[in-house]
Amino acid sequence: MSYLAAGVIAFGMFLLYDLNSFTWKNRILHTFFLIGNVILLASTAACFVTLIRAYGAPVWRIVIFGALAVSQAALLIYTLFFALPFEKTYTRLEENPPVYTEGVYSLCRHPGVVWFFFLYLFLALLTGQRLMMAVCICYSGLNVLYVWFQDRVTFKRTLSGYEAYQRETPFLIPTGKSVRKCAGYFRTMEEDGDEI
């Protein structure tokens, strides 16, 4: 199976997970978010390792772009799995929990898309190979389409207060106001000694 096809399958599973959240509410389909992430991670790792083994990469690219990729991966993991209340977000089929608007979610409505794009861009720059850049473009494009669907359909049906959040917070590109709001949140957390 090609790496690009794996991405299409993974994002298809994400879409089914979302549709399930407001239609069928099937427990098996509820696992598709996790399964899709495993497929995406496995196909990315396989593509990356295959390219590095076949073509190598200079040490400077490994150090610079490797560090940048790791930073984006950390931001993505934090945004998806730690910034949100995990159990309410991923394990329960709860009816209309409130939208989360704090922290990185005050930057834009889908900050994970930003980290995801830069993660794949830095992996592509690290390998220096067109295939990894194609994976970056394909997966990032699918991700934008997926969050557009979430923004227009899923979250309006599954999160209370989402329409107000749409009016107050940019879709994908942070603004000066949203950056200040996010920075203020983390500054307050640091001053209060709370965990981030």
TrEMBL record:
Keywords: Membrane, Transmembrane, Transmembrane helix. This is Isoprenylcysteine carboxylmethyltransferase family protein. The chain crosses the membrane at residues 31-52, 59-84, 104-124, 131-149. It comes from the Bacteria.
